[in-house]
Amino acid sequence: MCLVSSCKEKIKKELPVTSSDVEIITTEYVNRDHLIEAEELQNLLSEPKIKIVHFGKPAQYKKNHIKGSVNVWRNEIEDVSHKLIGMMCSKEQLENLFSRLGINNSDTVIVYDEVAGADAARLWWVLKNYGFNKIKILNGGITKWNEIGGALTTEYAVVKKSKFKLAKNPPMTFYATKEEVVAAVNSKSTLIIDTRTLDEYTGIRQKRNAKAPGHIPNSFLIDYADCVNFYGNKKFKNYTELKMMYDKITPNKEQLIITYCHSGVRSAHTAFVLTELLGYKNVKNYDGSWIEWSQFEDLPKKKNSITTVFQ
Description:
Strand content: 15-25%
CATH topology of the largest domain: Oxidized Rhodanese, domain 1
Number of helices: 10
CATH architecture of the largest domain: 3-Layer(aba) Sandwich
Strand order of the largest sheet: 3-8-7-4-6
CATH class of the largest domain: Alpha Beta
CATH superfamily of the largest domain: Rhodanese-like domain
Largest sheet: 5 strands, parallel
């Protein structure tokens, strides 16, 4: 773990996925293996083993995107056969998607978005569960890229289909089921973190596809947006700020933590912060999140306000 006092020192470590001389400067986070700065990416655009993913709606991609990037949207990494919206796609579905996009197992995937890293973190979470580790999130996404004057294009990337394959027996290390959350509600050894907004948590707002408002009992609220400079460059806050935020609820890096939101996207972002940036060892993201939890009348729910349903 990188102590705050030592964070002033710049620790250089070689980027293992490219033959260039570009180096990552590790300043404060416990781990930067899955994080890349916009300035670093500028020097990697021509690297053949770097594959950039623009995670956003096709209309956004068509308007402009980072040169060479391919487009992925949420429905492409969701289980379209599931009765609930937003559940994680199958291994085979992801293999087919990456093969169509020309991504190889030897490539490093750099993903960015326009929503402060939430969608990018969801892809990180899916890939990590399926045992693929060569994934990096662009810190600050397209907002930071624009800030440094990074080149954009409207040209679609030319890809050559590949044969992408995931682990035969995926580890699913960061995956939490409904049953695990049920067991955690009254468990003193497990912490549940709600990463939605205050309005969602209290029940003032009920988003589409949920059948009831409120939150899971005994869950702590830390909005995922509080982890980034949300109204600025969208980059993750520094180590000290993040540590102070989560130390308030648990400084225990070994404790089991389950994150959730509305559909498992924002909570994937918090799982990234906890595991990669802060070094928590046992973090899982509840895939079904509030959409699934709210479907079951027998599951406990708490709210403390009148609800407005938002479609």
